[in-house]
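Students often ask why we bother encoding 3D structure as a string. The short answer is that it lets us treat folding as translation between two languages. Here is a chain of 336 residues written in the first language.
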Amino acid sequence: MPDRVRTVFIGTGGMAQGHIIRTLQQKDTTQIVAICEPSPRSHDLTRQTFEALGEDMPPNRPNLHELLAEFKGNLDAAFIITPHAYHHDQTKACLEAGLDVLLEKPMVINAQEANSLIETRDRTGRLLVVAFQGSLSPQVRESVRMIQGGELGQILNISGTVWQNWNELNGETWRTDPAISGGGFLFDTGAHMLNTVSDLVGEDYEEVAAWFDNRGRPVEILGVIMARTKSGMLVTINACGDTIQSCASDIRVFGTKGILRTGQWGERLELQKAGRRMLRPVKMPESLGVWEQFLQVRNGEIKNPSPPEVGLRMARLWDAVRASAAQNGAVVKVGA
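And here it is in the second language, the structure alphabet:
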């Protein structure tokens, strides 16, 4: 086995640049062998990034299937950072080519695709980690441990809110094209909220009611979700993508023995137990980057914190949310 993980970056747009920089700074663990980027503009941006760090630009093969054939035997992993609608087919191709995959959020755009990737992972025996900062954060992992360990008692309600000036930032981009994005603010920035809440819930949803406001766009800009889980836990998510310049989130978990506060990216962890008057910070180690944690999972050092099973729970929720919103908030059975 090579000393360094040989990887390909599939998609090198604006979101990918920070990941590329961080990966290039890990020369002892990782080698970027190739990139797959059909956009001349993004390719040029990537070239500038490599040059700024004094690195040679790896070869670019815009066609993924040709790239996988050409570099067969010379790649170990893929980091996929492309528009949402492309995730399923690209991930499936990489897994079937024998590569482990770190996949940018959201995993897929519906539950059918989520089930397909789980089947492909199981059939190929490869690794699939979804790059959700929330599930990968020590704060959310500790939150899940406390919830599942009963430290908060019976969980009664979970409430999440996310807000951003998303409409202003993304109004004329692919992110507002439903055929490519799979949704708007609630499925882009808000996908972190859908995933982290689904991770904290830790069980399947039973039924959902949801409302969208597109604010004149082809995709939702505002959204409200109410859900009930199999055990009767009540969940609410409020998403506002057309507010002042900002980007933030808040998640509260209410149990019979305590209250927990975190965020969709795991940006905090606070706890209030019975007898205390307010939430208090819980000291946690700094979260590693998504690629570092992918390598830890790949090396067997930690259990996969963000597996496709959580992505499936989120995808089932999203399918039901869209179905309910299309019926002006009608209650929808999840998985129906």
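Translate back mentally: The longest strand covers residues 155-164. Keep this in mind for the problem set.
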